[in-house]
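Q: What changes when zinc ion is included in the input?
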Amino acid sequence: MIFIDSEGEPIQEFSAIYVRDNVIVDVFHQYVKYPFLKTLDEDHFARSHIHGLDIDFLEQYGLDNTDVLYSFFSSWLKKHSVTHLFAHAPSKEKNFLQLPIQDVHLKPWRERHVLSSHRNSFFMKMTSIPICNVSCNAHTAFHGWYPKRKANKLNATDIVKTEFGHHCSLYDCVECFLFMKES
Ligand SMILES: [Zn+2]
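A: The predicted holo structure follows.
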């Protein structure tokens, strides 16, 4: 089984984990250079309040564009000859890869945050635990989660999301895997 996830619109971080016999045995993790000038940052809300990917980091370590990412990922996928891809709500990823991806349907946030899959992947993210020698610390532009809609008061779901911190595609893949394991 392969679990995938991405962050950013357009995609700026893309991860996949390959699971064999219930163990993560390989990881694909790449960044893409942010394609807009910093002064025209159309992803600025997400950069501050959702994924927090740092433009300078992407500039230094990112692939040139999503075509290069596509080609790298396709090669990685061929290596494992796996046909079953899984992700949570994968509309963006389906569109990018043009492949069937099964939705793992993580629980709504208010139910999700008490699950051990969520707790464990959260801990791994916050302590940057390496997954097959890969960890991620590209999210230094994160300034705290905040709802994009206008809100005078945070609702219960918002509060759970606030506690979750930044979104990282690597550890979100791990959460999907752990969730399927415990379901
Ligand atoms: Zn990350």
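Observations recorded in class: DSSP finds eight helices and five strands in the chain.
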